[in-house]
Amino acid sequence: MYKQLIFENEVLTAYTHHLMAPEHVHVNCEFVLVTNGTALNTVNGVSETIVNGDVFFLNHLPLHSITDLSKDHEHIDLYITREQLRQICLNLFNEELYDFLMKDASEKKCNLSYDEFTVIVKKARKLEVNYILAKNDDMRETYKKCVLSVIIEILGVFFENLYSRQINCPAWLEAFLQETQRPEIFSMSVNDIINLSFYSHTFFCQTFKKCFQRSFKSYIDELRFNHAKNLLATTQLSILDISLTVGYNSSSHFIHKFKQISGITPLQFRNIMQHRQS
Questions:
Q1: This model's pTM is above 0.85
Q2: In 3D, which of 98, 140, 102 has the Cα closest to residue 13?
Q3: CA atoms in the 13 A half-sphere facing the CB of 273
Q4: Domain 3-164 class, CATH top level
Q5: Per-residue confidence of the chain (278 residues) as pLDDT tens digits?
Q6: What CA–CA distance (Å, rounded) separates 99 from 222?
Q7: Which residues in 155-169 are b (16+ Cβ under 10 Å) and which e?
Q8: How many Å apart are CA 131 and CA 125, to the nearest integer?
Q9: Is the dihedral of CA 16, 22, 23, 24 positive or negative?
Q10: Which fold has domain 171-277?
Q11: CA distance 209 to 215
Q12: Cα gap 115→128, rounded to integer Å
């Protein structure tokens, strides 16, 4: 016989557990962050070892327990109602993310980086202290909104992971594209950028097109365009200097590309931004 844990009055809370959790189900949903040690996480009879740094989501469906494998095991739970989760997904992400999280009783793992995990855990610990020390209901309501912001951060990573699976982008290409976002990279010629990948030009362009249904050149043009907008709005650099900085050999080519993307010339864009700031 299992105990049904009901958290109707404890949603949007962060709570640190130092003891094992006996077999139970939830009325609402929870995000679990393993912050220390190791434990055995059992979901509907299927057990898996969880360790420090693991993050996963459980909806209201599974029969669930956590058994300590080390004395120093600790995990943080973040609780949220199904309706709150649905509204966040629909308003900030999409219905597909909500369907993914709620479609069955399995745990859904979230691939947080070490830095992301560290920041979120630090926020959750601080919020838990703040709730304990809260002096009135207004402070507790503020606390719940802060917990909601932490949950949204985790959902953002879930959404990113879900999107990455949809486009089926190879890990090497995803890592390479992160590097191309640096101005010193995207200002190089497209051929020189591709050479940095150590793949052939044909293979690289075909892979990129298959993943994103657009050309690599158009992607680089967009990076240059976004950087040029920032320079136009925040510096007094000449149009020629900006064109050279973002990777175009002539101002006429730069102006043509800028107008092609935005519908206005770089000078017109700068004038608009200056007018807004005045």
A1: no
A2: 140
A3: 16
A4: mainly beta
A5: 344 444 434 567 777 877 778 888 888 899 999 999 899 999 988 999 999 999 999 998 888 889 988 888 899 999 999 999 999 999 999 999 999 999 888 889 988 888 889 999 999 988 888 878 877 888 888 888 899 999 999 999 999 888 766 667 888 998 899 899 999 999 999 999 999 999 999 999 999 998 888 899 999 999 999 999 999 999 999 999 999 999 999 999 999 999 999 999 999 999 998 888 76
A6: 32
A7: bebbbebbeeeeeeb
A8: 10
A9: negative
A10: Arc Repressor Mutant, subunit A (1.10.10)
A11: 6
A12: 20
d(CA 24, CA 147): 23
Contact at 8 Å (CB) between 58 and 82? Answer: no
Both tokens of 97, joined, read 């993310």
Residue with tokens 């190791």: 38
Contacts of 84 (CB under 8 A, 6+ apart): 11, 12, 148
Closest listed residue to residue 48, CA positions, set 35, 60, 34: 34
Sequence ranges of the domains in the chain: 3-164, 171-277
